[in-house]
Amino acid sequence: MNTKNLKGKLYLIPTTLGDCNPEDVLPQTVKRAIQFIDHYIVENEKTARKCIKSVFPEKVQSSLILSTLNKYTEIAEHNAMLKPCFEGINVGLMSEAGCPGVADPGAAIVKLAHEKGIQVVPLVGPSSILLAMMGSGMNGQSFAFNGYLPIDKSEKKAALKNYEKFSHDKNQSQIFIETPYRNNKLLEDLLQTLQPSTHLCIAADITLPTEYIKTFRVADWKKVSIDLHNRPTIFIVHKM
Prior knowledge:
The protein is α/β, with parallel strands linked by helices.
């Protein structure tokens, strides 16, 4: 067999959702992948190196070749990041937290890999979106992840009203996120905008020791005191 013509694979390597023991949330397949992969595409080099070291401490850091992919990366640079694959070298794609390609800039690399005929290998790991949905008690048969809400107050209110109506009309749970330092303000907006009978799930610090997942009606949330500042949080709305 002519191995020179074999392409390397693109491995989608999940990371933890925060500071916790990797063995608690990452399967052995992730550790084995990190053991044999030296080329990585990452959002942040410092945190990626920290993650790799925590999962496989024996990894020689000087052997790592990291390319940075974030919102500032030019599309023209994407091809260069996958170049090792055409030399028969496996490449790992890592998100800043959780699963690569899901609410993550890595999706562009995965798309390009398919276009270039590079095999994509997703590995099992924690997804805050799915874990929140699992723990919410809402409709897991039909749900939508909507990303971030508009920053403008009037636009945000309109979006929340639309998600609430859509959840009722389609019986579909609506999932969204916010920049962690704006979580408390978003919760305030939710309680002011949504109808009292609408169900709201708040899932913060998923898989961490401070994990918090609760689902109440909006009317009941108004009786709860919770600080979500700088805590990674998933919000799910469903008017049943």
